[in-house]
Amino acid sequence: MGASLRDVANLAGVSVKTVSNVVNGYTHVSPVTRAKVEQALSKLDYRPNLSARNLRQGRTGVIALALPEIDEPYFAELSRFVIDAAAEHRWIVVIERTGGDLARERQVIDGVRDHRVDGLILSPAAIGADELAGRTDDTALVLLGERIHDGPADHVAIDNVRAARDVTEHLIDLGRTRVVALGAQDNADSGTAPLRLAGYREAMSAHGLPEHVIKVDRYRRADGAAAMAAVLASGDPPDAVFCFNDLLALGALRTILSSGLRVPQDIAVAGLDDIEDGRFSTPTLTTVAPDKAQLAQIAVNLLKQRVDGSIHRPPWEMRADYRLLIRESTVPTPPPTP
Description:
Layout: H1 5-12, H2 16-23, H3 31-43, H4 50-56, E1 62-67, H5 73-87, E2 92-97, H6 102-111, E3 119-122, H7 129-133, E4 140-144, E5 154-157, H8 160-173, E6 179-184, H9 192-206, E7 212-215, H10 221-233, E8 240-243, H11 246-258, E9 268-270, H12 277-280, E10 287-290, H13 292-308, E11 317-319, E12 322-325
Parallel strand pairs: 1-2, 1-3, 3-4, 4-5, 5-11, 6-7, 6-8, 8-9
Antiparallel strand pairs: 10-12
Helix pairs in contact: 1-2, 1-3, 5-13, 8-9, 10-11
């Protein structure tokens, strides 16, 4: 058993209440007394019982992170940053995979109280704002992703329209005139796809260029490879491809190179998400890099404010930063000087 507050108090010659005040950072303790208590804490290697403290406050010290997928690199990388940000508040994170399934998302938003978590960070793929607003569970909630904007909870995302416009502008600035957008989806009236398509269309329209939009069912490598094969088989290949995420881009890249074409000399390829795979592909992948650490930090901080009850205001729409990373798939590395 570790040392208790009473053990520390006996060694320091003070009351248990005084030790508690020092441990909890209260200021109304004299410097001399504080020094005696801190010396006793160090000597006894005292460790606070966080579980007991949380229970006294009606908390568990646990939050939930619910994502559509956990095997996709973007969500895996984002999860790591959420865990790091939560650790600053001594929170443990449990991760739930919803599969983008409506029934599963309903279970998550209505059942978090039963799982005794202090708050929920949710990246919805199916549920809508109206249903979220009508949930019966009052557990603190923060939203990620692009499914719900101006909804019933704080929401954090990047500006996907502007990001897609920026990467499309980059391809156009390289002199590419037949730029394909790969990643549109049927019946996608919300989420990532329509926003990234809107950004692509803004850039193409601004330069008077025709649109070439290719639809996919999912955002996996195989979908990108198959869609790119269909484009090449049409007999009218593009000179650039903007893929709506990096997995699609990596699949498209493989198909292009396997067909005997060169990247970027024949077809430039760009993605969005900046997953680690793109930094090690051949050629390396040009992409838009959301600031995942900032996304996670903002989401966790907003959740902390809601859990603590320190804010009473309507939900906020927050934007995280992003940057365009230009790599070899759009701008070839020049050969070394002899």
